[in-house]
Amino acid sequence: MTTSNDAPSDRAVIVHTSLVAGHNTKAQRARGRRRGLGTLLAVDLWERFSFYGMAAILVLYLTSSTGQGGLGMAPQIATTVFAGYMSLSFLAGLPGGWLADRVLGARRSILLGGCLISCGHAVLAAPWSASLYGGLLLLVIGTGLVKPAMAALVAMLTESNKEREAAFSLFYLYIQVSALIAPVATGLVAEKVSWHLGFAVAALGMAIGLLQFTFALGRFGDLGQRPLRPIRRSEATRVLRRSAPAVLVVGVLVAVAALAGSVSGVLTVLGLATLSLPFGYLALLRRGSPWTGRAARRQLSRFTMLMASSAAFWMVFAQSGSVLNLFAEHHTDRHVLGFEVPASWFQSVHPAFVLVAAPIVARLWRRLGPQAEAPVKFAAGLMAGGFSFLLMAAAALIALRGPVGPYWLLLAYLLYAVGELSLAPAAMVLAAEVAPPGATSQFLALNGLFGAVGVVLGGQLFRLTAIVPLPLYFLSLGILVIAVAVAVGLSVDNLRIRTHPGD
After folding, report:
1. CA 317, 322, 323, 325 torsion: positive or negative?
2. What is the DSSP letter of 227?
3. d(C-alpha 364, C-alpha 373), whole Å
4. Residues 239, 244, 246, CA angle at the centre, nearest 5°?
5. Which of 139, 128, 160 is nearest to 206 (CA)?
6. Who is most buried in 136, 367, 492, 501, counting CB within 10 A?
7. 3-state secondary structure of 317
């Protein structure tokens, strides 16, 4: 009798102990994910510090006279160089993401990429004009390795779509902290002391982030230590055989243009490669096993159309560091109490607005609930981006009579912030959700590639300002982006993506 009476009690103790252990294990996993996410947030903060710090001063350095320590480039050439650098940084994300997914693993990609970024800034900090393109190339390769791998680790640390969206939104806010501080720090040093010392400050930021990541590797457990789908030798041979001809053609064209001394020719070739790569890669994906079904292909087509529409937003957004930077320098009254505000400091306005507007935008999307689907967010972001350029068209028209007040740029950056908060996190979540297992880094890189398409288009279109008045330039691009926003808004039902059955 004793045994029979004690048995249920023993089973209850065992069940209770198991529940407690399971609860403790779950709590430990949650704490580990939070600590790992915190480390990634801090590392990305420093990596973006180096990126935004350099981006804030690059065009100003290129267009500054040689007597002031710059390179004395024409504004059209300088903005094309800037657009080429930005687009190639996104473009490198696809091979970088592939290496993280199939060869290196996310951790080693971040470590190797971080080292290359630090070296790139150090090369730019050297007081020789010849170091420009070598330093930019190192930055491009390093950024291509770091960014998709970092985003993939964030996706690995989350367990649900809701958690993932919250993590990416938090990630985006931390990026804005870097974007707020970096232009002030590097811009002050670069414009008031030395351009090359400004690049050195950016190098220091990346070095700090790299050390922090190295010391905190234990927080990630096995996540990102090895590729999820290691590539087989036969597959690697097939990939090299398919990609080698395209790389060879682009390399030959770039070499010919470089030998001819044509900077514009080099950037044009790279721009055409950037425009074609995302669509070509998606066409190859449609032949793969995850996308053979009719429903899966329809999902991939909708994903492609949404990503392509986002390029219109990035087309105007990416001109913040070039067109709007030059507008701040040449057409804006920057004197405050006898102090001339450096033009690069305006690059900190946008992230400040993002930090302020983020809670308001997030609350708005929460109130909309299920109606706040990805196409709706894309349309809202595009609309805000289009109206920012309509506002700049009015400012440029007034500037024909003399410098305008800074509030024009402030309002434009506010619209930038609302647009970015609506579109960018939604695009990252969408890419992570659509990606098949083992391809997360590549799909996040695809999201960046369509950003590169927009950057290239914006950089090439700015060359029209040599023959088109600036007010008409802003007006035309603003109307174009608003038209894309209207088209996406009217096609919400046809662009809806269900990433999982039953969602």
Report:
1. positive
2. -
3. 13
4. 115
5. 139
6. 136
7. helix
- Residue 433 near residue 90, CB atoms below 8 Å: no
Residue 248, Cα to own-chain centre: how many angstroms? Answer: 27
Global pTM value: 0.68
CB 122 within 8 A of CB 214: no
Distances (CA, A) of 131 to 48, 128, 136, 201: 22, 6, 9, 17
**Dihedral angle computed from the Cα positions of residues 414, 417, 422 and 425, in that order, rounded to the nearest 10 degrees:** -170
CA dist 392 and 474 (Å) reads: 6
State the Cα–Cα distance between residues 76 and 63, nearest whole angstrom.
9
Residue 62, SS3 per DSSP: helix
Q: Which of 39-43, 160-164, 313-317, 382-386 has the highest mean pLDDT?
A: 382-386
Tokens for 157, please give them. 């640390």
- Torsion angle defined by CA atoms of residues 61, 63, 64 and 67, in that order, rounded to the nearest 10 degrees: 120
Residue-wise pLDDT for 447-464, tens only, equals: 878 887 887 788 778 778
CA-to-CA distance for 220 and 236, rounded, in angstroms?
Answer: 28
pLDDT at 24 over 50: no
Residue (of 252, 419, 455, 413) closest to 324 by Cα position: 413
Quote the CA–CA distance of 86 and 454 in Å, as a whole number: 10
The closest alpha carbon to 276, from 316, 308, 299, belongs to 308
Using CB atoms within 10 A of its CB, is residue 77 exposed (0-12), middle (13-18) or buried (19+)? Answer: middle
Secondary structure (DSSP) of 81-144 = HHHHHHHHHHHTHHHHHHHIIIII-HHHHHHHHHHHHHHHHHHHHSS-TTHHHHHHHHHHHHHH
Report pLDDT for 121: 83
